[in-house]
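Researcher: If only I could read backbone structure tokens as easily as an amino acid sequence. Walk me, if you will, through where the backbone shape changes along the chain. I have put the entry right below:
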Amino acid sequence: MTRKSPGTPKKDAGQIAGSPDTSSGLPTQEQVMQALTDHPDMSSKRDLTRYFGIKGDDRAPFKKLLKELEGEGLIRRQRKSLKKTGALPPVTVLDVLPDSDPEELFAVPAKWDEAADGPRPKLRVAEDRKARVAPGPGDRILARIEQSGGAAGRYTARPMKILDKPRRAQIGIVRLDDDGARLLPVDRKNKEMRIPASDLGGAKNGDLVEIDVTTSGRLMIPRAKVTKVIGSPASEGAVSLIALHNLEIPYQFPASVLRAAEAAKPATLKGREDWRDMAFITIDPADAKDHDDAVMAVADDDSANQGGHVVYVAIADVAAYVTPGSDLDKEAYLRGNSVYFPDRVVPMLPERISNDLCSLREGENRPALAVRMVLDAEGHRKSHSFHRVMIRSVAKLSYNQAQAAVDGRPDDTTGPLLDGVLKPLWAAYGTMAKSRDKRGPLNLDLPERKIILDENGLVDRVHVPPRLEAHRLIEEMMIAANVCAAETLERQHSPLIYRTHDVPGEEKLAALRDFLGSLNLSFSRSDAVRPHHFNQVLSKAEGSAHAHQVSEMVLRSQAQAEYSKENFGHFGLNLDRYAHFTSPIRRYADLVVHRALISALKLGKDGLRFEDEAGLSAVAQHISSTERRAMIAERETVDRLIAQFLAGRIGARFHGKVSGVTRSGLFVKLDESGADGFVPASSLGSDYFRHVEEQQAMIGERTGERFRLGDKVEVRLLEAAPVAGALRFEILSDGERVAPPGSARGHRRLGRVGKAAHRSKKAKRR
């Protein structure tokens, strides 16, 4: 390249006015970066060439200079445009952070590529009381971007307009066929659509994709156009991927959050009591990867408390690593909780925190927030205190392992712990069980099914794990610790988030009374319904043919538990105050309670900040929402896995129970797998079946044939839709004969239509 000799600068006629003089050679890297900063609308190589007056032999080295800047990560190429990495356009779309203080809003770009642009910038939203646009937390806005402090300065956003948030993209599974491709919708309400070959967007058979819906022809037939290939559930062994995308659950940690987790250093003894010589143990499911609670109990040596015990519950000190306002904290708040699927866990915190630094691993020093409870011989709590400590768990046990040891079958691990550790724990639990029984919580113990997957991520079998005393021991000790947390914070006049469970509503109670009346069971009409009223009716139904029906209806009558800054008590546990404290690794609510305790008891400087207290109502509402979202995702994923499991058994017969009754038909839960499927009312027989709500039943108008909630039935599987998680059954059993709706007679002989329906079912059974 021939360099121009220095002399009097002379601008080329094609060079932009006001651009720097480069007649003596190529621009420097700094000049290029400054140009992109000063002129954000200048975005192509051609623009830069004109700006700097590059021509002739200088074009090739200038192109090389731009490639060097791109290689060093200082600029990025987006199609034909060049942009300064991390730069924002003068006008862009922003999402106001949902946890922002309404008096001081912050926002982030609605679209941002962290891999290319680095950490997502956080912008202060300028406050102008005269402005017509007044956004709030969670809003999406169009804003004018201002930068101060030079090229690397901070951004300020001036709102121009509040925008509607876009509707969630529709997703589905691509299925290639002889005519091209079709989309199997994930949502049961949507229908299949054709995908033109030109609109596949590189998707392969079985891929999970996002689509736009277009129409074609005079009939405006809807067609799908693939906009994004999410992945293949089959190749990833993750049916849960569908639920994650459908419900917009974050499952990949931003790079900034992972960096913060990796940079975290183990907590030290500074500011902590040393409890490492105490014999704490963890008792969890055999496949648990994180351990956030450890327990220990000893007989109380106080002569004034004969037969009493001292119980210790130590909980992982997540607050030591996840500090208010940090990247880890923001992501944990966004997720709200961990989500548990049969094929994966979507954790609230990165594994470096949840499975390593905070997990109370056997034989390793771990920070904890612990409660010491003194109980009398009847299990009543005499006193309690909280401590910030360092512990070292002496053993990691499974529920089965601990139970077997106490039942007389110790192994090499539990044998040495039996007399000094396990027996005192069980003795303390024995007194706590007495107190629990006197308190009288809702005694609704419905079995939980667990799905076991094979190596390919498909259902191998479904089983109901036994409910052991070891489960109840840990449960009761966690409940006691949660109560202590709520009581302590109330006593300290500290704000907190309660775990509340309200009294059942009048409508649900009326429906329950009507249903129980159809079974000749009575229920209290008191204005002050308590858990023992439900326990009485559950006890009356126990062992009868209607026991399952009664349990289902009692469960349905209950309010939904939630988080709240206001205290409504916990009806199901029959407790006046309750706060989640024992699982901060997987629940944000517990982390907030930990911080409140640290601040209230002056246990450190990483507690609840004064500025965070005002936002606790919004936090409670948000994490209640994420909890419900997780429950839906877990249920939908189980439905899809089971439907996939049964897809090869079309035509097979199953035994089950009626699990739901609606105007359109019956839901039946299979005994074998716990799968729920639908029986349309139109397929019940030749009779017309009417929904009788007070009986939770469908009853034939002519025959009086009745199918009621909880009835045992035999069904045949007609259809399985794994993507939608839907099953359709045909009922083979005869229903009980009762008086038809509107009839005054107790029983009615089968008419001609009823006999035809009866013969039809007999034929089906053959």
